[in-house]
Specification:
alpha+beta; PH-domain like; Endonuclease, Chain A; 17-stranded mixed sheet; 25 helices; repeat; PLipase_D/transphosphatidylase; lipid metabolism; PLipase_D_fam; Phospholipase
Length: 915
């Protein structure tokens, strides 16, 4: 089978796919080397790529030549040819112009969007995770019981015929208690349409004992892809408040203190907007590109109209009347996997004859009209961003309706019932709203009608939680975590606490994720398919229950605009990876993530903003090889010599997220990672600070700030504090370039032949006017909005911010110009220093720059805390805090040797585990 971007070998006896060869830079057919090595005969030909070599035999020489010509023709077409050329940064994937992308800060908004789009899936869902906990809740508070629990959500889609494929990291059980086998058994036990594979198998000689699959991916219908640092697992859900306590109980907000919801990152709650669109033609790389210019006008009143019954009825009717619906090009699927059509048909028998119309209540707040956008990129791939519906612009609706109403929307109806429904619906809905729906749904868009149905059903079933504060609980069972205090145990017992939440605060989690649509999402899906097929070939080649997957065509990628949120930006996207033979069976090592980091940092003009879980990067050291620290150092030295205003913002967690007590006599992984972090930053000849000083940069803080996050709260009357764990994997450069993904700053993530990783490099192509070092500047919408959002959160400037971290109204903070002295020195660095001094005074926190030896640490911990001695005075001091920002203590324990001892288990293994 030959398609636009791959060749698949099918077993002629049963037409099941036995091997898939993706077009790549090493894709060849009948090369001279292959002909010699395989001793090819006239009726045979050989196809190879980075993963496989396949010899095929035909019945005649004419057939052989026909196949060879067909494959060569596909590789010469633009959609196939692009895979054969080298790409920027050594990536396997091209740059995708005119892509659409959105960022998420913290898991709350991200998982709400995830839950919405999973509900809209039509054909398939791909999930790749380092750790996957099926019992996590995607939406909180859990006002709808288990409805939005991940396993329940996936089961619902599987029962409707959506095929779900999951790849999880197979951990070394003696080292990690992730219980991936438990997750696999639970998910596969839900429905035959859910297939899970674990990788790698850690056998002798495999070389995989130390490495992990670290990607965090969700791909829906090969059309939507979530990429970032957030696993679907315990402890990840959080929001900008970063609460320390969760004792449960639902409370209702006082009516006078309710905050009006405006624009959210999920697009589910928005101000009412109307749109006007104007078509213009512009030149892009010599080709005509049709672009829609959208003018958004705030409206004062919602559009009048009822709910979504009529549009959903028409969409369902079109789906059933069409000849057939195009399904995902996945073959070799076992017979027990029910198709969407079978699932759809099988549900007919469960529909009750009588349909209750009295369940339709409420009004549609607003409708947003969209035309179609036809976009042609450099690879001649067409992306038609369709107007298949609206983005709902309203508060959450009433609780889901009865089964009778759902039956009306989802199940086929007899002609008499259809007539009755049309008559009732037409009486319930004003003509103006009906016209808008007719404009949104064109007859030629039948293939995406099911997206419309699922979208409307989802909006119709919203539960109003605007008056709720807290829940019972936000972090149930294993979700209430504090990694430094105690590592996970018994993760297969989901709702049993393992930390005393009345005594120990939770450790808040700060993270970054993103969503991308269209061809860039196809690229992310292609990576997943490559990994899935490699795992099947390695472990389950002859098991027909686990099919080979194939990519969808790039020739026509159509994205309904109902997926978009107001925060979705038009950008250029390139997929970056760290992969090698052990992770994907390819005969090369790809380190395009590191190459992109190094290039962007070296060519930066104004600033570098980094948030990362780790910072392990030495200069000219045989122990750590990634170049990130060196290139940052070189850029600062250049700025110093040329007297440039240049800033580097680095945010990392105050402590590594491993169980351990720094002052304890026993060694721990926490100290091992802290050792390499301190060597990278300021300790020893290979550190950044030491190399800067040797180059004559005496005032290091003028150019670079190392910061962290911390917060405090009251727990059962006791004042407590805890670090906010930064798990982000983010780089922003000059408000123009952004890297979001799963890659940490260490050799494990950057080398390419260790942990497997996926990131997105997002380059802005739409700009806004702002200022950089007091001068007018064109900033990219995506990078600028994300950097601004993060700084506002860290400085307590977000609306609705938790009172304990809100910036005092007396402080005027503008984050738009990040490198000016007014912001960098007078606000960012000064607030970090002030907050640090306050926490040290009130709580005697550590790590701290006031402690350089273990003896000093012991004495520091023994000192009386103001929080214990005088709560009123402590609260007065804490009222001066501004946001979460604190200094990272670069001199903590600098006089101690923190390297692993030979007597510890950390000293018995290779240092590469920690670097």
């Amino acid at each position: 089978m030959v398609k636009d971007t791959y060749v698949a070998y099918m077993d002629p006896s049963n037409e099941q796919i036995r091997l898939v060869l993706l077009f790549d830079e090493q894709f060849e057919i009948n090369s001279h080397e292959l002909l010699i090595n395989t001793k090819q005969r006239p009726k045979e030909f050989v196809v190879s790529n980075l993963q496989h070599v396949l010899m095929l035999k035909c019945s005649t020489e004419e057939d052989t030549q026909d196949w060879v010509d067909t494959i060569k023709n596909c590789t010469e077409e633009r959609s196939g040819q692009i895979w054969l050329h080298k790409k920027r940064y050594g990536s396997s994937f091209p740059q995708r112009l005119n892509s659409y992308c959105q960022w998420f800060v913290d898991a709350k908004d991200c998982w709400e969007k995830v839950s919405s789009l999973i509900e809209m899936a039509r054909e398939e869902i791909f999930i790749a995770d380092w750790w996957l906990s099926p019992e996590i809740f995607l939406r909180r508070p859990m006002a709808e019981g288990n409805h939005w629990r991940l396993d329940y959500t996936l089961k619902r889609k599987a029962e409707k015929g959506v095929r779900i494929f999951v790849l999880v990291y197979k951990e070394m059980e003696m080292a990690l208690g992730l219980k991936s086998l438990y997750s696999k058994k639970l998910l596969q036990g839900l429905h035959p349409n859910i297939k899970v594979m674990r990788h790698p198998d850690h056998y002798l000689g495999s070389g995989t004992f130390f490495w992990a699959h670290h990607e965090k991916l969700l791909i829906i219908d090969q059309l939507i892809a979530f990429v970032g640092g957030i696993d679907f697992c315990y402890g990840r859900w959080d929001d900008s408040k970063h609460l320390l306590t969760d004792l449960g109980s639902v409370q209702f907000a006082d009516q006078s203190t309710k905050t009006k919801v405006s624009v959210s990152t999920t697009g589910d709650f928005q101000e009412i907007k109307l749109t006007e669109e104007h078509e213009t033609n512009v030149q892009d790389n010599g080709e005509n590109v049709k672009i829609l210019e959208k003018t958004i006008i705030d409206g004062n009143k919602p559009a009048q109209g009822g709910r979504f019954k009529d549009v959903m009825h028409r969409a369902v009717e079109r789906i059933r009347s069409s000849r057939s619906r195009e399904t995902t090009p996945i073959t070799n699927t076992p017979s027990q996997l029910s198709t969407p059509e079978e699932a759809f048909t099988s549900e007919i028998k469960h529909v009750t004859p009588s349909i209750r119309f009295n369940n339709f209540t409420g009004n549609l707040s607003a409708l947003e009209e969209h035309d179609s956008t036809s976009i042609t990129n450099e690879e001649n791939s067409t992306r038609n961003f369709e107007s298949n519906g609206t983005e709902k612009i309203d508060k959450a609706k009433e609780k889901r309706n009865s089964i009778g109403a759902i039956a009306l929307l989802a199940f086929p109806m007899e002609p008499k019932q259809r007539t009755l429904v049309r008559r009732v619906v037409s009486n319930l809905r004003p003509e103006k709203a009906r016209r808008r729906w007719r404009l949104a749904l064109q007859p030629s868009e039948e293939t995406h009608d099911e997206y419309i149905v699922n979208y409307c059903r989802l909006q119709d079933s919203k539960v109003d939680m605007s008056g709720l504060q807290g829940a019972g609980k936000l972090w149930p069972g294993k979700d209430y975590v504090n990694f430094v205090h105690k590592d996970f145990v018994d993760v297969d017992i989901a709702f049993s606490d393992f930390i005393n939440r009345y005594d120990k605060p939770r450790m808040p989690w700060h993270d970054i994720h993103s969503i991308v649509y269209g061809s860039a999402a196809r690229d992310v899906a292609r990576h997943f398919i490559q990994r899935w097929n490699a795992t099947k070939t390695e472990k389950l080649k002859d098991n027909n229950a686990y099919p080979y997957l194939v990519p969808k065509s790039y020739n026509s990628v159509r994205v309904p605009k109902i997926f978009f949120s107001p925060e979705t930006q038009r950008v250029e996207v390139q997929v970056l990876r760290s992969v090698s033979h052990w992770s994907t069976l390819i005969d090369k090592t790809e380190d395009s993530i590191q190459q992109a980091y190094v290039s962007l940092i070296a060519n930066s003009r104004h600033y570098i903003y980094i948030e990362n879980q780790f910072f392990v990067s030495l200069i000219n050291s045989p122990d750590v090889n990634n170049e990130i620290c060196r290139v940052i150092c070189d850029r600062i030295i250049r700025a110093h010599r040329e007297n440039e205003t240049f800033r580097v913002f680095i945010l990392i967690p105050l402590l590594p997220g491993f169980e351990g007590d720094i002052g304890a006599t026993s060694y721990s992984a926490l100290l091992a990672v802290l050792h390499w972090t301190m060597l990278s930053i300021a300790k020893g000849e290979h550190s950044m600070v030491e190399n800067l000083r040797l180059a004559g940069v005496d005032n290091v803080q003028k150019y670079i700030s190392f910061c962290s996050l911390r917060t405090w709260d009251l727990l059962c009357g006791k004042m407590v504090t805890e670090l906010v764990y930064i798990h982000s994997k983010l780089l922003i450069v000059d408000d123009l370039y952004t890297i979001i993904g799963s890659a940490n700053i260490n050799d494990r993530s950057q080398a390419g032949n260790r942990d497997s990783e996926v990131c997105l490099l997002i380059t802005d192509h739409e700009f806004i006017d702002t200022r950089m070092n007091y001068q007018p500047y064109k900033a990219g919408k995506f990078a600028f909005s994300l950097r601004k959002r993060l700084m506002m959160e860290h400085l307590g400037l977000l609306e609705g911010t938790y009172p304990r971290v809100k910036a005092p109204s007396t402080i005027q903070i503008n984050v738009e110009d990040p490198i000016s002295n007014t912001f960098y020195e007078d606000i960012w660095c000064r607030i970090a220093e002030s907050n640090t001094r306050i926490y040290e005074e009130v709580f005697k926190v550590f790590p701290t720059n006031l402690v350089e030896t273990f003896d000093e640490l012991l004495a520091w911990r023994a000192e009386n805390k103001l929080a214990d001695d005088d709560q009123d005075a402590a609260k007065e001091r804490l009222s001066k805090l501004v946001g979460f920002l604190v200094e990272f203590p670069v001199n903590f324990l600098r006089k101690e040797n923190l390297s692993p001892t030979f007597a510890s288990k950390e000293g018995l293994v290779s240092s590469s585990i920690f670097t």
